[in-house]
Amino acid sequence: MKYANRMSKLGTETAFEVLAKAKKLEAQGKHIIHLEIGEPDFTTPDNIIQAAIKSLQAGDTHYSASNGTVELRTSIAKYISKTRGIDAKPDEVVVTPGGKPIMFYAIIALVEEGDEVIYPNPGFPIYESMINFMGGKAVPVQLKEEKSFAFDPNELKSLITDKTKMLIINSPQNPTGGILTKDDIMKIAEIVKDKDITILSDEIYSRLVFDGENFSITQIPGFKDRTIILDGFSKTYAMTGWRAGYGVMNEDLAQKIARLMTNSNSCNNAFVQKACIEALEGPQDGAEKMRNEFIARREIIVEGLNSIKGFSCIMPHGAFYAFPNITKTGYPSRELNDHLLYNGNVAALSGTAFGEFGEGYLRFSYANSRDNIREAIKRIKAVL
Ligand code: PLP
To answer: What is the pLDDT of residues 112-126, one digit of tens each?
Structure first.
């Protein structure tokens, strides 16, 4: 087959590749500790599971509206209005199978050949992949350890040109665990406020801010209508496999993205949408418990990583990732990652899986038990 040229521009998410390698080792009888994949290790809270079962039994097994059921969009609009302190309406919400498709659709809908998109690097790899896929120019803004992996406003300013179409921000951030404080976001807003730049604000980890509070750029006057909030159920409610997420954006863009849904998925899973309403409106103690456990594990992993010779790890402020600097081990990131996997039976991710500025780092997801985290630290020490 002769593939379309654009296929050569499509990147990937290495976490899934490392997971496959680790599974292969497990099939050979090895015991691997998984700190590579970014998904909560908890089961979905039972009230959410029960809502899905009830919905299935009630016959919610048919197509539904492309942009999501009006009940779920109403629930999401209320949730976003409350948590962001803005007035979000149901027609400004598009429900998608996971939060990830919102990146895909937003970039397809807005980025033309030659348009520039500024994105965080190290950052979620799909941003760069999708910008390239659409023929845009991916312009990385380097997140630096000495700035706690926040944006450097001066650097951002220097990257903006007449061709800048979109700015992608992500807080709490994958892979660094860094956050953008209210002050950081005010500075970013000041820089872009007079420019015709759309913001894609990836807030998928918004309920996992451990120090300070989540602040969305949509809370700044004038920014709601030019911002696409990406959020979802995967991380907050341990629902990665359910595939449920959404975007909140101006109504006009929401209609365009709904049309992309019609052309691709048709609609979301009907009974999953019922379960999502329960997730947002039902008891929150399951989500709170997971959050508290992440806070406890954060201490264990950061202390453990800092006790490894050649590693140094700053305290992440959110999400469930630690991003230690490993330059003093003398290994390049990818090589160290392979060494830990094949000789130490610990699966992590090379910082370079998140872009060129990830060299010198590894990402550890602490979505694993306290005992496994401690055991992983022991194994890494032994193999180094
Ligand atoms: N955004 C970021 C920064 C992520 O890390 C992820 C998942 O790892 C997503 C979005 C997508 O989440 P999902 O599609 O599972 O809802």
So the answer is: 999 999 999 999 999
Tell me: pLDDT of 16 over 90: no
| CA distance from start to end of the chain | 45
d(CA 138, CA 209): 28
Residue 276, amino acid:
C
Q: How many CB atoms lie within 10 A of CB 233?
A: 26
Ligand 1 atom 7: residue of nearest CA: 38
**Higher-confidence position of 306 and 213:** 306
User: What tens digit of pLDDT does each residue of 295-354 get?
Assistant: 999 999 999 999 999 999 999 999 999 999 999 999 999 999 999 999 999 999 999 999
CA–CA separation, 198 and 266 (whole Å): 26
CA 214 to chain centre: 15
Tell me the domains of the chain and their CATH numbers.
Answer: 5-43+285-383 (3.90.1150.10), 46-281 (3.40.640.10)
**Atom of ligand 1 minimally distant from the CA of 13:** 8
pLDDT bucket at 151, cuts 50 / 70 / 90: confident
Dig out the tokens for 361 from the structure.
């780092």
The SS3 assignment for 20 reads helix
For residue 38, pLDDT over 90 is answered with no
d(CA 24, CA 35): 16
What local confidence, expressed as pLDDT, does residue 13 receive?
A: 84
CA 180/CA 204 separation, integer angstroms: 14
Is the distance from the beta carbon of residue 363 to the nearest atom of ligand 1 less than 6 Å? no
The response to whether residue 36 sits with its C-beta less than 6 Å from ligand 1 reads no
**Cα 15 to middle of ligand 1, angstroms:** 12
